[in-house]
Amino acid sequence: MEEQTNSVEKTQEEQINEILSKIDNKDFSLYFFTLDTLGNPVAGVANIYEHVKVLNELGYKAYIMHEKDNYKVRGDETSMGINDWLGEEYAKLPHISIEAQQLSVTPADYIIIPEIFANVMDQVKQFPCKKVVFCQSYDYLLELLPIGKKWNNDFGFNDVITTSERQANYVKSLFHGINTHIVPVGIADYFKPSEKPKIPVVTIVTRNHGDAKKIANAFYLQFPIYKFVTFKELRGITKTQFAEELGKSCLAVWIDNPSGFGTFPLEAMQSGTPVIGLIPNMVPEWMEGLNEGGDITLKNNGVWTNTTLNIPELIGTYMKVWFEDSVPQDLLDTMVETNGLYSMENQKKQIEKVYGTLVANRRKEYESMIQTKETNEEIKA
Fold first, then answer.
1. CA distance linking residue 115 with residue 135, whole number of Å
2. In angstroms, rounded to a whole number, what is the distance separating the alpha carbons of residues 354 and 48?
3. Quick one: which of 37, 108, 109 has its CA closest to 71?
4. What's phi and psi for 47, nearest 5 deg?
């Protein structure tokens, strides 16, 4: 009986050493579960693809993992695909289908699940791999999570990657003992001012289509003199087209109350387009700073308001100074200071750091198993 036990223990040690070897040689996979947007551009999905792209550039084997075989990688006559709205370099990234039973998970691998899919977390909780939550939108994380259940205690997801310190703090307030890692969103280089003069177009991005219509209607009623000003909702177009339209616009309007990071205003700032925006429930870190007295205050990198009711009036005021070529220089300067913090290069450095930390911590877990075994053997001796 004792010989059988020693044989089993030796086999376990060999398995652990094999896993350590895989970790050291990056011979493992990172699977990012991704929603099929059916050709509709979604910022959160774009950010997941960016992580996968950078990780592959860094020598890791990272995959987009999707549920169905007909995942919209390439567009057709019915709708766009990833190649259309995000770009060919993203469509060419490794994809793997759960439906096709292509997934084979080992203890050295990682599964990364977006915060909304608590049901998927439950399904994979017995998998032997490292499990990580990708939390980009705090507003979604409780939608499918059963009452009383926790990511770490019930599903084995002990690490969370998120985009801001405030989201990280919120996650830690809900799931005590969970580890958080922050990778801010990077703003693509193709967001830039138009080479031609800006035109009287207001680009408006809202969570609900009806909000955009109400603001435009109220503006025209209050300022009939500006009836030639055009409002554009940028939906269902490629990211580069989105950037081109934003670069031409003289003003951007942003309404996204449950926003967890606030990518669109940063894209507008990098495009040289000032923003009028509703302050969201979770104030973005890039929106706040310290005044001369050391108190937290809103930065002058946009025109921020706590109600949508005065947005039409704010648009009218801005259009007046824009036509007079007297947009405050302080606003423009603070925009430049802000968007410089969220470059693609900075994001890449943080991705390398965060995933490097996850891998190093995983290695320590397996090393501790061997050390525990050796300690136990010394005690027995």
1. 5
2. 14
3. 37
4. -70, -40
CB of 161 within 8 A of CB of 132? Answer: yes
What the block records as the tokens of 319 is 């259009």
* Model confidence pLDDT, tens digit, residues 290-340: 777 778 899 999 999 999 999 999 999 999 999 999 999 999 999 999 988
3-state secondary structure of 9: helix
Distance of CA 105 to the CA centre of its chain: 24
Name the residue ranges covered by the structural domains of the chain: 15-186+345-380, 199-342
Instruction: State how beta strands 288-290 and 296-298 pair.
Output: antiparallel
Q: What is the pLDDT of residues 6-44, one digit of tens each?
A: 444 557 888 899 999 999 999 999 999 999 998 888 999
The per-residue pLDDT for 3 is 36
Q: Hunting for tokens 């490097």 — which residue is that?
A: 356
Q: Are 133 and 160 in contact (CB under 8 A)?
A: yes
Supply the CATH classification number for the domain 15-186+345-380.
Answer: 3.40.50.2000
Nearest Cα to Cα of residue 338 among 304, 373, 364: 304
Residues whose CB is less than 8 angstroms from the CB of residue 219 and which lie 6 or more positions away in sequence, other chains included: 226, 229, 231, 312, 315, 316
Bridge pairing between strands 179-182 and 159-162:
parallel
Short-list 100, 131, 102, 110, CA closest to 52: 110
Q: Provide the whole-model pTM.
A: 0.92
Judged against a pLDDT cut of 90, whether residue 381 lies above it is answered with: no
CATH number for domain 199-342, candidates 3.40.50.2000, 2.40.10.240, 3.40.50.2300, 3.40.830.10: 3.40.50.2000
Amino acid identity at 375: T
Distance CA 105, CA 344 (A): 30
Sequence length of the chain is: 381
